[in-house]
Amino acid sequence: PPSAAVNLRPGAEQKVVFITARVHPGETPSSFVCQGIIDFLVSQHPIAKVLRDHLVFKIAPMLNPDGVYLGNYRCSLMGFDLNRHWANPSPWAHPTLHGVKQLIIDMYYNPKINLEFYIDIHAHSTMMNGFMYGNIFEDEERFQRQAVFPKLLCQNAEDFSYSSTSFNRDAVKAGTGRRFLGGLLNDTSYCYTLEVSFYSYILGGPTSAVPYTEEAYMKLGRNVARTFLDYYRLNSLVERPLAPTPKTR
Q: What positions does the domain Peptidase M14 occupy (predicted)?
């Protein structure tokens, strides 16, 4: 029988969302956010089923496993800040980046694959809330389209801050995944860094800081996944639970 999944039909173009995390070993919250995304996507939730039918998610949950194992804060086993070496990663010195970058490039040149999103998950030691970094483009329309996903995420996640979200092209960040892939991929691909605070998010007034928990980080991950439903306007395909029949008097 033909597959129900739109993206698995013969000849169908696959829309790919590529997610990476934990390139900086000390940024443990990024792993919990990524865990939330994965747990949600493989669940039986009606939204997750629709997302799996229409999108392909590729996830590399830990780009710096040796650094994590050693308890490093920012560097790999060999002392590299991997998030500055995307432009020319060495298969010997930066093997995880080299492998992921090669996979992304292969997908980019595959006519049957449309790489739509790249999101790299980090944690931030001084800012509150979740927020994103995006790229700056000369093309005004592309620049505005890039703002759509973080705006939608802001509506879904109470701890995500659009006002802290920024778009930049400073030289220091040139070797990051977001910046490098933003320059490599075409104008239908969106590349972001998703940052989440190490400690708190603010609800309501400026004094009401709520400490993050592992569960709150995972909830942000779930909300990131759910936002693709809004972005691709797939809401109408979600199976609603049957409304209870009103009791007759």
A: 1-232
